[in-house]
Amino acid sequence: MRILVPYQASEQGFRHIRFAGDVSSRMGVSLSVLLPSVSAEESERIRSLVLSFGFMCDVIAADIETMTNESGSIYVLNTFPKRMDLTILSPFWESAWLRSAEHRVLIPFGGRDAGRFATATVMPIMKALGFHVIFYHTTWREGIRSVDPADHMAREARLTQRIVEGLARDAGVPYTVLIETAEDVTEGIILAALNLKASLIVTTHGLNVIAGSYATQLRIGPVPLLTIGRTEVKS
Amino acid sequence: MSTRVYSPYTVMTIVVIMYLVKVVCKLSIGLHINSPMLTGDGFHNIADIVQAMFVIVAVAVSRMPASDKYPFGRKNIESIFSVVVGVSLCLMAVKIGWESMTTLARYLPVWAGLEAPFTSPLKMGNQYVTWVVAVTSGSALLSVIVGRFQIRAGKAMGHEALVADGKETLSDGRIEAATFAGVLGEYLFHAPWIEYPFAILVAGLMIRTGIEISLYGYRALLQRTIGRAHDQAMKVIITAMPGVADVADLKSFRVGPRAIVIAKVLTHADARASRLLKHGIITHVTAYLREHEFDEAELFIRFDRPDPKRERRAVAVRSSAGGRCVAASLEYPTHLIICDMEFDCVSRATVHEVAALEGSVLEFLHTKKVTSLVLFAPSPKDALLLRDSSIDLCIAQSSQLSTLGL
Known about the structure:
The complex is a heterodimer of chains A (235) and B (406). Chain A folds into 2 domains: 2-90, Rossmann fold (3-Layer(aba) Sandwich); 104-228, 3-Layer(aba) Sandwich (Rossmann fold). Helices cover 33% and strands 22% of the residues of chain A. Chain A is built from 6 helices and 10 strands; from the N terminus they run βαβαββββαβαβαβαβ. The longest helix of chain A is centred in the first third of the chain and has 17 residues, at 11-27. Chain B is rod-shaped and about 120 Å long. In chain B, strands 4, 5, 6, 7, 8 and 9 form a 6-stranded mixed β-sheet that branches. A 3-stranded mixed β-sheet of chain B has the order 1-2-3. Chain B folds into 3 domains: 8-221, Up-down Bundle (Alpha-lytic protease prodomain-like), CATH 1.20.1510; 231-304, Cation efflux protein, cytoplasmic domain (Alpha-Beta Plaits), CATH 3.30.70.1350; 311-404, Nucleotidyltransferase, domain 5.
């Protein structure tokens, strides 16, 4: 497992390298900088540059759109390739992860498998980094009078909630559950992350979504987004 | 513990009833035993009733909703009221302090045997003591209870006028306690003068309270910041929000008890994300203000992009059969790409063939107002050449144009 970031010689590109370096050092994994092709001189220069940011790295020749996906590796990008199999961590404009001291991560879940898949994939990372996970679900109001949003949850969502809570318990990751009846799912997720000072939103691609994936909509920011790649989803 | 919220009118009705009871008791007993202190206090309580009426009017006006003409509402009428109450409290304190000092002076040996020069002495008899003790102690106790109730209710409802009037009522209670001390002094030690040092002390406290109340109102009227430390803390909260590049400006002031915060936030977020960011900022700043006793707050946030740092950058390019790459030095370029940069990214780029240039490369770069030139491995000669011009030399870590956003 490693953190991969494409090299871009711009302020934002350098910010991404710093962000990726910060993530790699926190996770204790290696950092690789990607270039379409690499000469020895370029490799040396880029390594020196990244070292001046405080991080060690290796430089590899690769193109995001065509390279083989490395299972478990995380790509730091905020331009999104068409591929759905890559796990992409998208900073908004940060140069360091975890701006807030609370170390909270928000994982939205619904009635489908996406929340379960995202939770199962990231729990080891959450455990290793000592994160507190907030499982978030927003539901439509059903024809009942209760003011408690949990009473409006669909049966499938309740089942998912039990599963993700079980995954967190098994992994020993502290968690809370927040159920809301937000007017818009994407905005509800982002607002909850902002209000609860979450440093990251974790999501994935839904298997049955053919347009308007929340994973895509959440890219508007401003909260960093980790999109777990799925090989079974077609781009 | 939950605090029951009363209507401000209910609170003020209780206050008026209290003053009516006090007026009847103090005037009837005071006039009967010819006590100027009690009688004066009774008349002062009539003024308190009038003041309570003003509080009711001020509260009614302040509760009127914001409108086009009054975008922040009319809460500041309560600040005007605070200034008036504070100043009148100070004046009353000066009067009480002066009278107490002059009356106390009468008890000094130098005045012994002379006629009372300034005020009538307190007339007391054992037959009245129970009544006087009951009225003065009961009145002081009532003032403390009702004053505290007013302050608590005023803070809970966000009515500055109620709080100011409550503080004034508490000051009344202190004066009444001083009178009570005098009564006890006369009864227990035959020393009625004990009342006056207490009254002087109370006058000092009244002046302090008066200044505090009027300053509170004065600061709101002049839109003084709610505190530099608060402004700084709010800037830190906003800057820590994801997506916020900086807080360009933040101003705060009070309208009545309500804190108003106006901030200009720099962000790269688009309109939709900015709207969400605004909600997040409001949540956190309002929570901060609530922790610091600003139960009501209104935030006006506008977003702007950070400085785009516009500049024009040139990239020297070597074109060959293998493709284009960043030229190593000024000896080899076949083309020059002129890039308009925003936020250090290329927003527009034009390509120019070096062979087709009329003058030298440097002359061309000057004509195009270029501020920096990118090379991959500049020679010492290039560095020297550019040092004498106003063009900065940038060394690319990679010779691939795609890494420069081209």
